[in-house]
Amino acid sequence: MKSTDWNTEDSYWRENYKSRPYASGNDYTYYEPGYRYGFESAHKYRGKNWDAVENDLRAGFDKFEYRGKSTWENIKMAARDAWDRVTGHHPVGTR
């Protein structure tokens, strides 16, 4: 697992979010809840596969303290990106 410090990850995503295929036309604050949720969830569900917990993640996002006005569908790809970065998982066709 990578960093356990959100501030380190936040800095990484602030610098790199624009290069992600889903990030078009929105600033960092739009995606930040997804990155943070994916980061925190990867630690919470350590050892689990994204596909196995995605329904739980979707349901839990509505209660996520930092979600702001975001919806799961709007930030799902950012959450997955942060999850993959923490877990070191790189889906086929990415990175």
Architecture overview:
The protein is an all-alpha fold and 95 residues long. The relative contact order is 0.22. The chain has helices at 6-16, 28-44, 50-61, 72-87. It is built from four helices and no strands. The two termini are 17 Å apart.
User: Can you summarize the main beta sheet?
Assistant: none
Strand content: under 5%
Give the topology string: H per helix, E per strand: HHHH
Structural class: mainly alpha
The gross shape turns out to be: globular
Tell me the count of domains: 1
| Count of individual helical segments | 4
| Oligomeric nature of the chains | single chain
Instruction: Classify the helix fraction into a percent range.
Output: 55-70%
Total DSSP E strands: 0
The whole-number mean of residue pLDDT values reads: 91
How far apart the termini lie comes to 17 Å
Radius of gyration: 12 Å
Low-pLDDT windows of residues: none
In a nutshell, what does this entry contain?
The protein has 95 residues and is mostly helical.
Chain-wise SSE layout:
Elements: H1 6-16, H2 28-44, H3 50-61, H4 72-87
Quickly list its features:
95 residues, mainly alpha, 4 helices
